[in-house]
């Protein structure tokens, strides 16, 4: 009490009672679920779970053997640490930081050893022959694949969603659990193999999965069976309308991660069940589009996204 009373009195005198707030000295919780996987002879992929009660967390700090190597914003829970040495052991920890500058304790360190360098290796691994995915809950999925091959050996498997790498698994893995997904959401996962020289394979076959809604959140709002087909100067989209309780006349189309247009069906033209829409494409042949869409719900909000399809425009 002797410490806080003078501070409070000074605050009242200078700024008024409304501006007085106690100093934040409580550190965030330590991030859990830390993993580290060597992606190549000179890089390690570090991942962790968001700190519990992470509303006040503003960033994360990644340490190697007590030395700060990366700082990241609060929405990032994975990072590639590069510039490492081959056949070398490393120890990683992560701390959360809040707006007041408080840092969490570091959780248990995770140790990893980089593989030997393959300086002249220019040959990428083959793509995983098959990829499968199934939802294991509203916010989780299990992705599995058959092993790829490489002349010097696969050192890691990278899982991609929407063109972004979201997870890395070890060389002997044939499946991995993904967490932090959104309920009632369609995802398309692909897997690439990587070798010790950081050569990546092409994508394996795409695996679609839709997470179930949380209890009480209602039916799936994502357009189902979404397809995209390129023809000279055009792209034809097809999908099945979600069951929203009434006919859906409005859809928002995304191309390469950006909202591009709103597709509207006029009175008397609203599709019942399967819908089709043809877009004019003026970009050069060979341009790659990643397309997905979502429906306007009866309450005025946008629903969940369809799966994302990648197409190459034709001349």
Q: Widest sheet: strand order?
A: 4-3-6-7
**Number of helices, counting only DSSP H or I runs of 4 residues or more:** 1
Order of helices and strands: HEEEEEEEEEEEEEEEEEEEEE
Q: What portion of residues belong to β-strands?
A: 35-45%
Give the beta-strand count: 21
Overall average residue pLDDT: 84
Rounded radius of gyration (Å): 24 Å
Structural class: mainly beta
Distance between the termini: 77 Å
Which stretches are low in confidence, meaning pLDDT under 50 for 5 or more residues running?
1-21
> Largest sheet, described in full?
4 strands, antiparallel
Q: Overall 3D geometry?
A: globular
Percent helix, as a range, is under 10%
